[in-house]
Structure formats: C-alpha cells, structure tokens
DNA sequence: TAATAATCGAGACGGTACGTCGCGTCTTCTG
DNA sequence: CAGAAGACGCGACGTACCGTCTCGATTATTA
C-alpha cells in the first residue's frame, strides 16, 4: 500500500477563453468543485479596489485575498499569478461589441472609433484600465490575452468594414486594408494613451474618420 | 533598542535637468563631493541589465546597486527611487534630434516619422525602452519627464512643419494642426506599440504620410 | 459566500482501547460500516514511513493520507488528530510482555531490564519509536496513553518482583520499593535515551542490577 | 563595471559556543554591525512567551518576531531556524555550575544530583524547558548542542568526583566510572522526566546517592 | 597640518509581500 | 451512511526588496 504520490499533478488553471468546459466532460470532476461565488468575489474585489483608486502597485495578492475574504491559495488555485487574474478582470469589464449602423462604411468606421473613444474615456474616469493597460506590456501573458480577447476581434470587424467599403466602391480597389485600418485607429489610440491631460472631444471619432477619408491635402470639408 | 527616530531634514535630490549646480554656488559645498564615476556606473549598469534582457520587474534597486558595485544609499542619495533613476537612463539613451531635409513638407513629415519608426525598432531590438515605455504610465513622474524631454519637443517640430505646409499652400488654410499631427503620428505609434509581432516596413513612414495626405478615398497613388 | 457556520455536534471518536464496539450494539449502526482494511492501511502506512526514516516533523496528516491512499476526513473520522493516531501506532508496535524466569529476584530484575534494553535498541535500529518517544511530551494525550499502556504495567511488575524480594529476604525489610525500582530502571533509561551514540552492551542489564544490589561502596564483585 | 555578485556569500550564523569572536579579528567587520540589543530582545521574548505558558508548538518564528518587535529576517540572520534559536534560549537559562563542597565524595555527588533535581523542578514550574527538552530529540542540532553545552560538562565533573573517590579509597579500585555515574544520575533523570505527576522530594538527591553507595542488598542505613 | 564634514561600500534593520504547505472543516460524487 | 478527492479560510514557512540607519574608511575643503 505504498501509494505516496510524488508528482502532485501539475496545477491546472482555467483556460483564458472558456470559463466552463464546453460540453464533453473531459474528467469525471472528482472532489469538491470550485465555488463560482468565490470566483466572483475575487474578481469583483479587484474591480472595487481599482475603482476606489488603489494603484496597481499596491494590489498585492495578499490584499486581494483579504478584500475578498478568501485564502491566498484559493486565488493561486485558479490563476498562476497577478497576470492571469487581471486577464479575467479585464474580460469582466469589457463593454459589449458595438452594433454597426450599416448605413455606410463611413458611419461604421465612426461607430467603431467611437467605441474606442469610450474605452479611452472609461480608462480615465475609473482609474481602472488605465493602469492595467499601462502595465500590460510588462506582463506578457496579459498582453497576449488582451490581444486575443479584445483587440483582435475589433480589428477583424474594422477590416471587414473596410473590405466592404472597397466592394461598394467607397474605397479604391487595391486599398491596403491593414494600413487603412491603422490610419483611422492610430490617431484615436494616440489621443487616448498619450494625451491623457486633454479631453476626448465628443465628435472626435467623426473628425478622424472624415479627415482620414478625405486626406490632409484636401481636408475634411470635401465630404459629401 | 534605540526607538527615538530623529526627524532629519528632507533629502535634496538633484533636479532632473541640471546634473551639476549652475554657477552661483548656493552652499559652500563642504565635505567629500559626489563622485561622477559612481553616477555613470549606476546608469550604465541599468542600461547593461536592460540590454541583457532583464525584465524591468526584476530591476530592483538592490540588484542595480549590486551590479554597479555601489551601496544602496548612494543611489537614494541621488534619486528618490526607481522612477527618477529611470528618467536619467531614458535621457541618456535618446537618439539625437533628426535633421529635416526641408525640401518639402511631405519629406519633412516622412523624416519625422522615420525617426519614430527607428525608435520603435530599437525598442524591439534591445528589449530596452520596450519595457521602460511599457511601465511608464505606472510611474507618473517618469511619464511626465518623458513627455517633457522627448515627446513634446518632437511634437512641436511636427506642428511647425505642418504650419509651414499651410503657409506654403501644401495644406488647405484652416487645417487643424493638432489633428493633422495625430493623423500621421498615430498609425506609426500603433504599429510600434500594438503590433510588436510584425516588422516595421522600410518605407512605412512614406506610406503613412502619403496615404494621410491623399486620403483613403483617393489612395496614395495620387501623389506627385 | 456561505459564511454562516453551523455548529455541528461534536464528532465522537473511538475509545483508545476498543477498536470495535464490545457487544451490545449501542446504536443501530446504519449506513456503510467503517472498513477495517482502511484502519490497517493508515496505521501500517505510518509505520512504514517511520521505518523509512521520515522524521516525525514531516509526518503531516496530509502525507499520511496520501501514503495510505486515503482521504483526510477518513483519518479524522477515527482519530481527533496526530496524537491519538500515534497512540494506536505505538500500541501496534509494543513487544509482548517478558516472561520472568522466577529463579530469583535478581534474575527477574535482569530480565525486566533486558526487556527495556531491547526496546532501547529497537528504537535506534528502526528509527521508529525514537522520535515518537521524543515528541511524546509535546503531545500530552500520547504521553498519558503511553504511560497507561506501556510504562505503568511494566512498573507494576517490577514493584511486584521487588516486594517478593523483600518477602524472600533478598532485600532488607523496609526497603523503599519505589526508590529501589527507579535505582535499577533509571540507569538503563539514561543509557537508552541520553547516550544514543554509544552501544548498549549485551550484559548491561546484569551489570546494572548487580551494581545496584551490591552498592557502589562494595562493587558488583561481591555477588554470589 | 560588471560586478553583479552571483553567489550571495553563504549566510554565516553564530557559532554556538562563542558569542563574540575571541581575539584575532578574523574579518575586518564591514557594514553595520548586528545589534546586541536586538539579540537580547529576541531571546528574552522567547523566554517570556514560554513563561506565559505558550505551548512550544505555537512558538512560530513569526510570533517571536512580532513579540520582540523585530523583522523575521533579523532572526534568520542570526539563527538558521527554531532549533538554533532554542539552543541560545537554553543556554541563557541554564543555572551556573554548582560549587562542590569537597567535604567528601558522597557530599559532592549529592550536590551534583541536587543541581539536577533543581533543573527538573524548574522545568515543571516554568513550563519552560519542559517542552524544549521534550522536543529536543526531534531537533537533532538542538540535541547535540544541549549535550555539548550542558550535559557533557556536568558529566565530566561527576566522573572527576568519582575518580577522586576511587583515589581516596571511598570506592573500590577498578570501579567502572561510567556505570557508577549512570547509577546515581539515572534515577534522578527518571524521576524528573517520567514521573512529572509526582513531586521531587527535598532529600531525594541524598536518598539516591546513599542507596546507590550502600546497595539495595544492604540499604541506605549502613552509611557512616 | 589638523579638524571637519559629506561621501563611499557594506550590510543590519522593521516592514510587506511573495508563492507554498499543512491544518481541520466542508462539499461534491461514487459505492 | 462511508469513502476518495479536493476546495476552502487560515496562518506559518523562509526569501526578496523596500527605504532607512549605522558602521569604518576615504576625500575634499576650511581653519
């Protein structure tokens, strides 16, 4: 009866994209299942702290655990560290996908940029994502996850809109979709990230789109 | 156990921009003067570590001191913490101002953007500023200093170029200089920061400038 | 998050001396009965670990459970903690009572002391009781149980032997039985516990008994 | 200036027997010296806790640090763990060497045993050494140190006394000094350790010595 | 030529957080 | 019900840095 398990079976953290296993029950699920409520308490605790203005540097795992009334191990059981936890937090805060008006490519682009502007605004208001975003490049896994979950889907939508623009004749054939996408997205990003002392004007999205469509040489007044 | 802490006078750190006191000797300067060599050793030590690929998170003051063969107090005597030290490092690494060709506004813009592209490239190559930039928003003083020293001067130059473009008739009168500036800068920033998996094409600066000048509706082929 | 802890009825553990309820079934005994095999597996697992040289400090309940391939709760269902479990282990390892030759008080004493010597030897050989004994005083219930089960019975036997010695004229009337008992037992104990670097000579029991009987002033040579 | 020390120089803890280096200054003593006061505060804190009746199991390093108002690292800087710290505590509590009357071997033996009896008493009174001693065998370094510092010196004194007894004719020539020593020491040890429910009689030392000298067959009344 | 004073490397100091482990209790599913 | 499995709140482990504080030794200026 010498069963002493040596390899404690590598800890399995939740896969970023799938909170609950889809359908085919992979393992029979032995032992007491992890509490959903605890999961929520932790993530919500982090959000509360961030909204209270606590700087990200002071967001120790120990403090998070204390706030949520939870043992440290319970956090480490789910996420391998701050990074992975923040991915969860980020996901839980992301606004739902914008619904495109579909009236014209131009209007769709304005809508997408407006969504970006709103995210920029909320980053400043709540102090929240401001810092999470700021640190993201230091936390490579978080960066990757954010790309996968947030950035890439939006980008794909914008590419689709632009491709439709080419098909509808709103853009010339042979347009570099990637570059076009970055031409309209870049300025909004710059305003959000680098100019955090200035407000983001209400009609900024429209301004950028119209200027990008018409070109500097012509100016936005040439729009139909 | 010697509990009575005497409140010492606040330590005075060097002002960021002036390594040596200007001229009028404020204090008679008694005692052993600070060693220039030590100053250099610390900053160079940080640069070496960053170039060796050490993540910024592992750049503890203790490790920096060890690397430079220097006491911790010697660092704190000069800078109040990591933030202020990094400002110094940042300044010591910035490439010299680009010299504008002056042949046309378009060429000047391309030149400025090319400078930005090169910075983006070096951030990736050396792993260096990559992380420093990434963390910068978490370190507000570093962020401010970087703005003051690096971003703002470049921005002022670009604004000047654009204003000259309006004066020369290359741009329509009434052009929003700020917005125009961001329209060309934004895309390059986006490529540098958000697309760190893709290369920055040799002629990217020209591509962006030409597309921004002509506008999406027209496409870059309309250039002279 | 389910904070209201309900005060459950105190768990009832088995009485140390009676592994199975005597006869009159106190409770109707509903549900699945406790497995004897499990009981054995746990105790044997502990013994194995101890004999493998695992220090008592590293004998966590968690590890014991792992070794025996048993859930932690299953252990706590039987014993209230390490202490009570160790009593069980101790009992399962004690050598059977020595049989006295009865030829003389002196020979009986030697026999009893030889038993003690053997226990001392086995403590060293198997690394086993060595540590259990060592920690016993920290675990008061274990200490008490050990007294009750092991020490006291032996002591009573020795007292009996000595009393017979007085009756038979081998010892003077008015001999302090307690003190006499300790005079012969003490040295062997000391050698076993305090001199674990030295061997326990084959004839040590005889040496001690003879010296104690004759007295230091006379020396053991005076024996018949 | 690539000095980065890799091997942090193995931590040196104090040698058990020599609190301060004898004379020849081995190393020039660089950096801030360790505070004597802190050392004292820690050891005294442990003693206080033990005397307050805190069980040894609850004597975590963390609690000791808290009690002494000291950082954990400060403790680990001096001792490698609980074991070595307890050696210090033990030494700080040991009564000074007994002064032998020298009137006779018998009186010297009584004096030595009386010293042992007093230690036994203090172990019970203060709850102190009781547990420390109990755990000692689990903590091998502590056990070794206790031997070296406390047991062995006393034993050597007793052996000396006995040898003098042989020389003076109080004991027969050819007496086994080791065995004789254990014959008188053993019973006192047994009473101290194994019979912690009974008091240690005032004249127990004399009783044991006299009985051991005269022998059980004769009884203590035969003494001069 | 001293006396004075700030600097230097080194490292002790009280803290806080790290990520792990064991405690004893609980909650799930399977026999 | 018992049993294996493992989640749970808790608290200690030993380590790493934080920013401050002594140390002895060094290096200028001032008297």
Q: What are the defining features of this structure?
A:
224 residues; Tetracycline Repressor, domain 2; homotetramer; mainly alpha; Arc Repressor Mutant, subunit A; DNA-binding
Kindly report the name of the CATH homologous superfamily of the largest domain in chain A: Tetracycline Repressor, domain 2
The gross shape of chain A turns out to be elongated
**Largest interface, C-beta closer than 8 angstroms, per-chain residues:** A-B, 43 and 44 residues
Structural class of chain A: mainly alpha
Any guess at the CATH architecture of the largest domain in chain A? Orthogonal Bundle
Distance between the termini of chain A: 84 Å
What is the tally of beta strands of chain A? 0
Which percent range describes the beta-strand content of chain A?
under 5%
Q: Order of helices and strands of chain A, N to C?
A: HHHHHHHHH
The oligomeric state of the chains shown is homotetramer
The CATH class of the largest domain in chain A, by name, is Mainly Alpha
- Count of runs of 4 or more consecutive helical residues of chain A: 9
Radius of gyration of chain A: 22 Å
- The number of domains of chain A is 2
CATH topology of the largest domain in chain A: Tetracycline Repressor, domain 2
Low confidence ranges of chain A: 5-10, 15-25
Rounded mean pLDDT of chain A is 81
Mind summarizing the main beta sheet of chain A? none
| Proportion of residues in helical segments of chain A | 55-70%
């Amino acid at each position: 009866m010498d069963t002493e398990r040596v390899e404690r079976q590598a800890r399995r953290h939740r896969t970023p994209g799938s909170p609950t296993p889809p359908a085919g029950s992979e393992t029979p699920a032995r032992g007491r299942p992890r509490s959903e409520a605890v999961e929520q308490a932790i993530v919500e605790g982090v959000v509360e702290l961030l909204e209270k203005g606590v700087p990200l540097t002071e967001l120790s795992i120990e403090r998070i655990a204390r706030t949520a009334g939870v043992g440290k191990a319970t956090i480490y059981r789910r996420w391998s560290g701050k990074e992975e936890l923040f991915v969860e937090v980020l996901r839980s805060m992301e606004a739902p996908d914008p619904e495109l008006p579909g009236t014209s490519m131009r209007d769709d682009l304005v809508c997408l940029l407006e969504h970006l502007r709103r995210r920029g605004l909320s980053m400043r208001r709540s102090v929240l994502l401001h810092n999470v975003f700021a640190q993201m490049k230091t936390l490579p896994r978080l960066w990757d996850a954010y790309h996968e979950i947030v950035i890439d889907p939006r980008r794909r939508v914008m590419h689709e809109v632009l491709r439709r623009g080419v098909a509808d004749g709103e853009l010339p054939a042979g347009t570099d979709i990637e570059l076009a996408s970055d031409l309209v997205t870049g300025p909004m990003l710059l305003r959000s990230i680098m100019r955090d002392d200035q407000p983001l004007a209400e009609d900024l999205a429209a301004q950028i789109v119209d200027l990008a469509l018409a070109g500097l040489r012509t100016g936005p007044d040439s729009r139909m």
